[in-house]
Structure formats: C-alpha cells, structure tokens
Amino acid sequence: MRLSTLSSLLLPFFVFSLLQTSTFAIKKSYIVYLGEHTHGVNPTSVDLDHATNSHYELLASLVGSNEIAKEKIFYSYTRNINGFAAILDDEEAAKIAKHPNVVSVFLNKGRKLHTTRSWDFLRLEKDGVIPSGSLWKKSRFGADTIIGNLDTGVWPESRSFSDEGMGPIPSRWRGYCQHDTDDGVRCNRKLIGARYFNKGYSAFVGGKLNDTFKTARDHEGHGTHTLSTAGGNFVPEASVFGHGNGTAKGGSPQARVAAYKVCWPPVNGNQCFDADIMAAFDAAISDGVDVLSVSLGGDPSEFFEDGLSVGAFHAVKKGISVVSSAGNSGPSPGTVSNVSPWMFTIGASTLDREFSSYVELGDNKHLKGASLASVALSSRTFYPLISAEKVKVANTSAADTILCLPGTLDPKKVMGKIIVCLRGINARTDKGKQALLAGAVGMILANDKNSGNEVLADPHLLPATHINFTDGATVFAYINSAKNPTAYITPVKTELGIKPAPFMASFSSRGPNLIEPSILKPDITAPGVSIIAAFTESVGPTEDKSDKRRIPFTSQSGTSMSCPHVSGIVGLLKSLHPDWSPAAVKSAIMTSAKTRDNTAKPMLDSSNKRATPFAYGAGHVRPNRAMDPGLVYDLTVDDYLNFLCARGYNQRMMRLFSDKPHACPKSYNVADFNYPSISVPQHSGSTTISRKVKNVGPPGTYKAHVRSPAGVTVSVNPSSLTFKKSGEEKKFEVTFKSKSNVQPAGYAFGHLTWSDGHHHVRSPLVVEHK
C-alpha cells in the first residue's frame, strides 16, 4: 500500500467522470467460495465449461433457473480457484452459505493500495559495482523468473520495461496482453503480460463502465512504480527533478514481468475489489507466474472470507510465492493486514538516503526536513512565517485550518508568506496545493505526535519541506514568541550515508496478528520510504488534476514500496533455487534478516524507541545472506491443511480445499505450525512448541542460542542438531516456562538462533503473558 497523495475530496470527481451514468446505486455483490476444482492443473475447455455450468446449477437451485443464475453471476472462477461472484440479496447469500459444497460466502469488499539507492543499501551492489558474491550475479539478475503484479496496471512505454538485451519469452508462459482499445497495452520480451479485471468494481459502483476501463494501462502510477521496483530493467540517469540521480533497476532486473490491473478510481476510499482480485489470481496462476507481488489490502478478516487470502492460498499450493504489503495504518498495534500464513507480509523502513531541505528560522535555528519539491524560493532571503491556524477564513475552525484543508486558508493573510501546516487528514501534497492557491511562497509541513520522526520527501508544487514532530514544536514556539517571525527553506539536496538506518516508518502497520496471534506478522521489513521507481506519464507526481508536470520516475513511500523490494528478491532466489518451495524462500529471507541498523545498534521505531518484531517481524531483509541460509523451516500443502484443521475447519471443508482426501490429525496445535517465527499467545506456566528445520547447505552441526523474552526461561531440546546431507530434516522443541518471581504483563520479545559457526538461522520469539 502506498501512502496516498490523492485528496479524498477529489475522489467523487474521478469516479463520476469515468462512469457513463451518474447513477450511484451500490448493489451488493458477493463471492461464493467453493474450494478446489476436481480437474487437474491443465484443464481442457470441457473442464472449464463444466466448472462454469456447475456454478450456474448451484445458484439456480436457489434462485429458480439457470437463466436467472447466469444474469446474477459476473465472474466464474474455473481454473484454480473454485467459486463465483454474483449479485445476491441478503437472503440468497444466507441460503447459499448453508449449501454443503460451499466453504464461505462473503461480500465483494474493497481494498486500498497499500529505485536508485535501495539495492546499494541492501548490498546487492556497492557504489554501482556488483560484487562477485552478490545474489544478483549468482542468480543472473533473476533471469527468466516471471513476476506478476496485482495493482493499477502498467505504463508500458517506461524504459524500465524495455526488452533490450532480453532473450525469447520462456516457453512455459501462457499469458497474454489485452489491448481491447486504442489505450491498450502492447507487450514485449520484458513485459510479457498485461490484463485487466473490472467486473467486481463495476458491480460495486452499480454503473456501466466506459471504454477507459477496458485497459491494463496505468493512469495512476502506483502499479508502474511497484512493478518496476520488483522487476524493472536497468535505466541509467534516472532521477526525480534531478535528485537521487543513478541507475534505476528492480530487484530482479532480468525477470519477465506481467501486470494484472485490479485497482480503479477510488470509491469511498476503496479501489481494488475482492471479486477482481480473485479473478486475477486465478488467471495469473494459469499464466505461469513464479512470484505475485500484491501491494494492497484491507482490514484483516478470517482467511477464507478474504479474497486476497483465498487467491494467495491457491497460488502457494501451486508453488507460487505471494508477497504482500503489511498496510499503512501504523503505528497503532494490531493494524497489520494480509495476515495469512501462506502470504509473505512486508513492513516498511527507511534507507540511508534522504532528500533534505532545511528550515532556517529567523532566530538562527536550522531544522532538517525532507522534500522533492520541483521549485525553490525565488531569492535567498527570509520570508514572513505564519501558522495556518492564524489565517483561517470566516466560519472555519482553527483545527481544520492548521491542517490546511481545502477552502480554509484566507489568501489575504497568506499572500507572500511561508505557511506552517500540520500533517493529517488530507494528503501532504494537497496541503501544499492549498497553500499555493492561497498565495503562499512556501510551506513547512510539521508532523503530528503520532507521526513522530518520520518525514517523507514529496514532489510538492511549491517550495516546501516536511519536518518531524519535535522540530515542528520548535517552529510553532518560535512563531508564538517572535514579534515578526521569518524563515527560509533551502533547496533540496540528496544526502547519502544517513545514520541511523534503517528505522521503522511510523505508517507501517504493526502486529499483533488479530486473526491468528500464533502467527507473527509482519514477516519482514524492507525499504519503503522515498523510493524512486518508474511512473505513469498520464498524471503528475502529486496525482492531482492541476499538476501538469510529467516525469518518468518519481518517489513514493508506503508498504506498497517495500513489498516489491521483497518480491524482486524472491525472484532472485527462485532463479537461484528453483526447487525451493514458497515457504523455504520465505524462511531463507526471514531467518537471515538483521535487527540492527548501520550504527550496529538495535533498530529504532519512528518514535526513537527500540522497535520490536511487531514492527519489523524477523528483521530487515539481507538478500545476499538469504541465498545461503543453512537451514529452512519448510512447509507443504498438508501442513497448511493441518493448520486449517487446528483452526476449526472440519473434514467436509478439507475435502473442498484439497484435490485429494486429507485427514485432520487427532491432535494438532496451531502454535506447532512450522513457521520461521515463534509466537506464544496467552502464555501461562509452561508452554512447549515444536518445529522442524531442513538442511539446505553442507553437512554440519548446529547449536541453539537463545535470548529469552522477559519473564520466561526458554529451553531447546535437543540443543544440537547434526545434519549428514542436504535435504535432511530434524525436529526440536522449545519450552517456555514462567519465572516464579516475576509477574510481567503484555508482550515480551527474544530470539532463537541455530548456528554452525558460518550460518546464523535466527527466529524471533514473542510471548504474550496472560
């Protein structure tokens, strides 16, 4: 999910301008999920027709006839996912949910959309030189891995999707490019697929869509940015208004990429709907992708009442890694989304690069901010400085005006001044727009308390800079104490080697996992702040209609940006280790992660306090370490099914999920699910969990090293594991015992590391004291 720069006040305009009718009667659309198909992995046209007809017959048994059923169903998922999407009333939905062949029935819910330096920071290169030990070289830059992206589409003319130097398209690829209109997408040997899915969106808005919806072309920029981050080709001399200049490239520069457009102009804040997401998953699985990058999500819900989770389940069953964003609802606890154990959930943290623009106050204080403004103040002089709350128009509140909301600023009071706006409610760049419209010469954007130290470089329309909460308080204090406060905003400059880095972005959604607390989420963190990547040239970088600037690359922030970093790394590992399962790839990345910054101290949160696994999961990604992890926590389809058994899914449902009979174990604890992290919810007294590791390196002996969470002692049995060959698996148990003289409350954190002296296989430990 990207931090949106589009003002919510403009959303109705975008929607209604694209619909052929102004009628906005929202009808209820549902997804009826039936589990697994009985046909094989390569269904014939007869198989597909049979699946479609079975959906008609099932619904017809409740609504009266096949003809009515055909009118109601707008998607039939026939290849990998078994189910359909249909227009139903509440009574019909309740009836079909009781059918013995139905796993779940849920509303077609809406979801939100959740570089030149990143790969140097991640040590795949060093000052433009690629070391011999880099995962890039070892994996041949992800050659011929196929990365699919569910998002807002793609801008195919971007140089990031040039096929220069690319060989023939892999013969296993079965996808294609849709270009039903003049605005369609033409593919090449790099961009090998582009499709769009809009029936779920259409069902939700209740209007007929015009031809602008019949294309996979990206008119927003989010999909182009995320896809190029995951698998964009090398593009020299990329920058944003001359800043951050370097060679742009994705994590897997030689991978093939495919765009699946499932996100459209927002409706009530939602723009990607479950029915379309499931249709895209169903198509991508059959097309032959190796990795799916999904930078979108919503509120967490039960695993099979969530279209994204359902689609990911079927993809992982077919050996496809699904990487997703954790969400941008931090720093509040329990906000993380995409929490299914088969999904790879990514938080966001900073790079060691900043786009700096300083505030110089009239009392000689210098405060560091962040910006990518395309213009600078016209002269090197101090300008009058005023707080936005002091320039409100009549009949508006100071609380609204300090946020620089549209229509709150009085031009007579603003003209020729630098204005100070508070972060919150409307988009950061929209505040700059409102300041510019009111006649301000510049803007200082100050954080609220929740945003803490996180500052973001945005492509403002006027000279502007974003400062942290503490510095914002300094500015407001100066304004209130000085008789004639003045300030100057310095031009933007790029600074490298920033310390400490990484630290967690305040927007990155946090654990615990509200659906299944025994599964720690997010899984990992990766760069997600001020990431430069390709962009659409259909809109300006602020995505505002008034922004006439067009740039081929832009900087964006969000877990939407961190997600494709990991998708690209997954692509590299798939190229290097094509026999590894999605779980093995995830384990390799998680257990090789780091939790210290570039000052060798523990990673910090944006509040300057020590971050925890609820923010960063297993830690910050280290691609070169992940290619040789030593041991992995692997999982099979049966392990996922056993997990569902332990979650209360009955034998009937198990038959629907699997293409073969699956007997639930007589005793199975969710906490024993073989996840690379270990979470113990509601601990009291003594708790023992089991795990299993597979050797993917040379023979050797690994010893356990534990840092116990506060309030418990942790023992590992056996504490030493000897492997004689690659592929060998060993089981062990971890026992947590409460200390009798300590009565802690809440959560405590530690870690378990298996080491043979060369490999360090690290798992976070999370204990919730009852």
From TrEMBL:
GO BP terms: proteolysis
Keyword list, A-Z: Glycoprotein, Hydrolase, Protease, Serine protease, Signal
Listed SUPFAM superfamilies: PA domain (SSF52025), Subtilisin-like (SSF52743)
Keyword rRNA-binding: no
Ranges where the Peptidase S8/S53 domain occurs: 143-619
UniProt domain Subtilisin-like protease fibronectin type-III: residue ranges: 672-767
Active site: D151 (charge relay system), H222 (charge relay system), S560 (charge relay system)
Domain named PA: residues: 401-473
GO molecular function terms listed in the Swiss-Prot or TrEMBL record: serine-type endopeptidase activity
InterPro entries: PA_dom_sf (IPR046450), PA_domain (IPR003137), Peptidase_S8/S53_dom (IPR000209), Peptidase_S8/S53_dom_sf (IPR036852), Peptidase_S8_Ser-AS (IPR023828), Peptidase_S8_subtilisin-rel (IPR015500), Peptidases_S8_3 (IPR034197), S8pro/Inhibitor_I9 (IPR010259)
PROSITE patterns in the cross-refs: SUBTILASE (PS51892), SUBTILASE_SER (PS00138)
Name of a matching Pfam family: Inhibitor_I9
Secretion signal, residue range per the UniProt entry: 1-25
Chain ranges of the Inhibitor I9 domain: 29-114
PANTHER family in the record: PROPROTEIN CONVERTASE SUBTILISIN/KEXIN
Family: Belongs to the peptidase S8 family.
Protein name per UniProt: Subtilisin-like protease SBT5.4 isoform X2
Source species of the chain: Durio zibethinus
